[in-house]
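Treating backbone geometry as a discrete language has practical consequences that deserve illustration. No coordinates are needed to read the tokens, only the vocabulary itself. For completeness, the protein is quoted in full, as a sequence line and a line of structure tokens:
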Amino acid sequence: MKSKKPLSDKKLEAFEATRNIGTELLASVRQMKDGKGRVVLSPVISARKKSGMSQAEFAGLLGVSVRTLQEWEQGRRQPSGAAKTLIGIAERRPEVLKEAAV
């Protein structure tokens, strides 16, 4: 399915009717077993892990709740403003963020 436009209900039903979810899942499991899968971390998770901080520590440094940080990490919400800038710094230069935390 190449189009990024939302499908109408009728087209979506037609598309779903042609799928075999069991076969798709089995193929995915086989790919993972063969080492062909890959884990993609969000930039927020990557920055936090590079900084070596827990979610609570990282959230505190950014001045947000742990729940907000989790929302960002899971892609349900996006950071904005200063938080986005600090996350970018943590991604590129985690040692700078560690210094700021002291």
The two ends are 50 Å apart (CA to CA). The first helix runs from residue 9 to 17. The mean pLDDT is 88.
